[in-house]
């Protein structure tokens, strides 16, 4: 059994309350996140520190990678794109502690672009039907090939950080973020749970409790006003 948290976007107070609620009911559950830890909300630095402190495993999102590229390769188009995607609050949250940026972006780029375990398949945006001809039906026996494919398509619009395509049915539950929904949305056709419930727009932060490819429960916390105003 695991808990998978949706896109956080710097909403630290909401995240902290959600984790507390999860742990109160499932004290020993392992925590995961689908990425987009930073940008838009007011507390990206605090979110990153909390992720480290609580040992929350995650797959990076496109916002996390834009942050990395802007710091390391500002002339890269992914770095430049950060300037149009909510970077201001992230930089403000690191004010007077810029020395932590290197540590945090190193953490981001050290994480896998997908996590495949017994309970589900986790990634930021999901595995697109674009890869249908490239991913063997029994994808679990070809994980190295899948890893190579998605790493080579890090900036592709159909890739695991960016896609809004229909997703492949992998033969197991996919849990993804990126594409905002008012509520956690499960699509039976491709066995996918979309768990980004738009915390940074004032809706809520959600998590799913998953065991053996089954969603046992959805847990949500409404957005804390101080996270976004």
Question: What is the H/E order?
Answer: EHEHEHHHHEEHEEEEEH
CATH fold annotation: Purple Acid Phosphatase, chain A, domain 2
Low-confidence stretches: none
The CATH superfamily is Metallo-dependent phosphatases
Largest β sheet strand count, sense and barrel closure: 5 strands, mixed
Overall SS class: alpha/beta
Strand content: 15-25%
Backbone shape: globular
What does the radius of gyration come to?
17 Å
The first-level CATH class is given as: Alpha Beta
Number of E-type strands: 10
CATH architecture: 4-Layer Sandwich
Average pLDDT figure: 95
Relative helix content? 25-40%
**Cα end-to-end separation:** 35 Å
Task: Count the DSSP helices.
Answer: 8
Give the neighbour order of strands across the main sheet.
3-2-1-9-10
Overall structural domain count: 1
Please characterize this protein's 3D structure.
The chain has a five-stranded mixed sheet with strand order 3-2-1-9-10, covered by helices on one side. 44% of the residues are buried. It has 229 residues and is of the alpha/beta class. The longest helix has 14 residues, at 12-25. The protein is built from eight helices and ten strands. The chain has helices spanning 12-25, 44-53, 62-72, 77-81, 87-93, 99-110, 143-152, 225-228, and strands spanning 2-5, 30-33, 57-58, 114-116, 121-123, 174-176, 185-187, 192-194, 204-211, 214-222. The protein starts with a strand and ends with a helix.
